[in-house]
Design goal:
This protein is of the alpha+beta class. Helices cover about 30% and strands about 20% of the residues. The protein has a domain of about 170 residues: Flavocytochrome C3, Chain A, domain 1 (Alpha-Beta Complex), CATH 3.90.700. The protein has 18 helices and 23 strands. The strands form 6 sheets. Strands 1, 2, 10, 11, 12, 13, 22 and 23 form an 8-stranded mixed sheet that branches. Strands 15, 16, 17, 18, 19 and 20 form a 6-stranded antiparallel sheet that branches. Helix 1 runs parallel beside helix 18 and helix 5 packs across helix 18. The structure holds flavin-adenine dinucleotide. The site of flavin-adenine dinucleotide (FAD) has 41 residues, from helix 1, helix 2, strand 11, strand 20 and helix 18.
Length: about 575
Amino acid sequence: MPSDVVQSSVEEIDLLVCGAGAGGMAAALVAALEGLTVVLCEKTDQVGGTTATSGGTTWVPGTHLSELAGVPDKVEDARTFLESVVANRGGLRLREAFLASGREAIEELDHRTDVKFAAATAHPDYLDGPGAAYGGRALAPLMFDGRLLNREDFARIRAPRSEFMGLGGMMVGRNELDTLLWPLRSLGNLRNAATIVGRYFLDRLRYRRGTRLLMGNALVGRLFYSLRKAEVPILFETRVKELIIENNRVIGALLDGPSGPRRVIARKGVVLATGGICWNRKIRDQLFPEGTRDYALGPISNTGDGADLAVAIGARFDDGGDSPALWMPCSSYRRANGSLAVWPHIILDRAKPGLIAVSAAGKRFVNESDSYHDFAMGQIREGAMPAHLICDSAFMRRYGMGMVLPGARNLSQMVRAGYVIEANTLVELAARIGCDTEELGATVEAYNRAATTGVDEAFGRGASVVNRFNGDPAMKPNPCLRPIGDGPYYAMAVRPADLASSAGLAGDEFGRILDEAGNPIPGLFACGNDLASIFRGTYPGPGTTLGPALVFGWRVAKYAAGKLEDTHEVPLGAA
Ligand SMILES: Cc1cc2nc3c(=O)[nH]c(=O)nc-3n(C[C@H](O)[C@H](O)[C@H](O)COP(=O)(O)OP(=O)(O)OC[C@H]3O[C@@H](n4cnc5c(N)ncnc54)[C@H](O)[C@@H]3O)c2cc1C
C-alpha cells in the first residue's frame, strides 16, 4: 500500500527527489526501478507542476518508437541538427549525454512502466537545417485514463490551464478541435464529438473534471500511476527547505511539511527538480529582459527554490546562453471575477495566412510563422512589449485568434472584454492600439504585395518546413501568406511569457551540480528546469524541454544507482 507519509524509521533513504514534475517523477521512478529507496517530496498538494499544463510533447531523437511509427529517426542526424542550431553556444557534453541515453531511457520507460508515448509521424523540428526531422523525433504521451487512479489520487493531478479545457473541464487534443467545433460537418465528426462529450458528461457524475487525460496531463498521469505501482512514497505539501551538508557532501535535506520540519538523510544524494526559476522574483529581476518579468506560465508555487538552495551552498548558476528563458507570446484579459485569462499563442493562429504582428512603430519585426520561442525572441530584440497581432474579419472567422476560436462565436464578447480590439479601418485600428498610422498602412501594403507573389522578402515567412506545416495548405502559393482584405480589422496584444527556464544550475552529464570551480558538489543533482537547458537558449524542436527533463531524470537515477560510470577523469561540467 503506497503511503504519503514516511514513517520515522524511513528517514534514512537512498535518494531524495524534490519536485513532482516530469524531471522529478522520472528520476524517482527510475531510481525505484533500480531498487533504490526513494522519497519524492512535493511542495503543493498535487503532482504535475508546469508539466501537467504543457503540451506534453517530448523531443527524444532515435527512439524505437520512431521505428514503430514508420519514421525511423537517427541520433547522428539529430547530432548534426543540433550542431547547426546550438552551434558554438556550449553544452556539448550534456547534449552528447542526452543523445547517448535518449533511446534507452524511453525504451525502458515504455517497457517497464506505464509512461508510454507514440512518435508523431509529422511534427517537424522548429528550424530547418541538416539533420532536421519532419516526424519521428517528437513523442506524444498516450492518452491516460484517469479512472485508473482512485478518486483521491486523480484529484492530485494538477489540471491543465482552464483556457485549454472545454465545457469547464474537458481536455481536447489538437486533432480533435475541428471535430468539436464543427460536429455537424460530417458523420465522422458527429460520432467522434458525441463519444468525447458523452464520456466527459459521464465523468462529471463522479469527478471534478474529465478523466480522459491528454498531452502534459497524460504524461503526469502516467508518471504518477507508475510511481504508485512502484510504491514510491510521495510527501505532499512538503517542500525542501535546506540542504544538509557533512564533509562537503550533501547528505540529505530538511523538509517542511504538514507535520513540521523533518530531516531526511539520503545516502546517494538529493535531486532538485523544483521547476526552474519560474516565479523567482530576484532571479527574474536580474536576468529577464524588461517587459517579461511579471508573468510566468508555470504554477505560482514554482518559486525557484532549487536554484536558491543550491546557490546558497556554492553551486554555479548558468545564465542559459542566448536567453534566460524559453518563451511563448501570450495574450490576456481580466475575467469578470478578477482572475487573469492567459492564452499562449502556440500554433493555432500566428502561422496562418492573413495575420501580421507589428510593433508600436507599426512595423513587422519577425517571421510570424516561426516557433513561439523565436517569435518572442524577435519581440524581445525589437522591444515590442506588447506587439499586436492584426488580421481582417475573414481571418478571424476562419482561424480565430487566441481565445477567439475558429468560427469566432465569442468575438463580440471578447471585444467587450477588451481582449480583442476592433476597428472598421486600419487607420482607426492603429489609433486604438497606439501605433504609427502611416507606418501600419505601409506595412500592410508591403505585406499584401508579398502575399500576392508568395515571397516574403522581409522575413522569409513560409520558407521553412515548420512555417508551412503550421500554415494553411489550401493557401497558394504560400501557405503562410494571404493579403489582408476588407475590415472590420482586429488587433490583439501579445507579450512574451516564459514556458520554461533556460538559465539554471550548471550541471554535468550525470546531472551532478557543479560548484563555481566546475567540480561536482557530491550528493547534489538536478533535472528538469532546475538544470540549465542543454540547448543554450535555443528551441530546436517540439518537446525540447520535456525530452531532456525525462532523459536527465533517468540519467541521474542511473548514476545514483551506480549504473552509469563516470569515465571522465576531469569533470568538464557544462563546457
Ligand atoms: C502552455 C505550456 C505548454 C508547454 N508545452 C511543452 C511541450 O509540449 N513540450 C515541452 O518539452 N515543454 C513544454 N512546456 C514546458 C514544460 O512544461 C516545462 O519545461 C516542464 O514541465 C518542466 O518540468 P519540471 O519537472 O522541471 O518542472 P515542473 O513540471 O514545474 O515541476 C516542478 C515541481 O516542483 C515542485 N516544487 C517547487 N518547489 C519545491 C520545493 N521547494 N520542494 C518540493 N517541491 C517543489 C512544484 O510544485 C512542481 O510540482 C510547456 C509549458 C507551457 C506553460
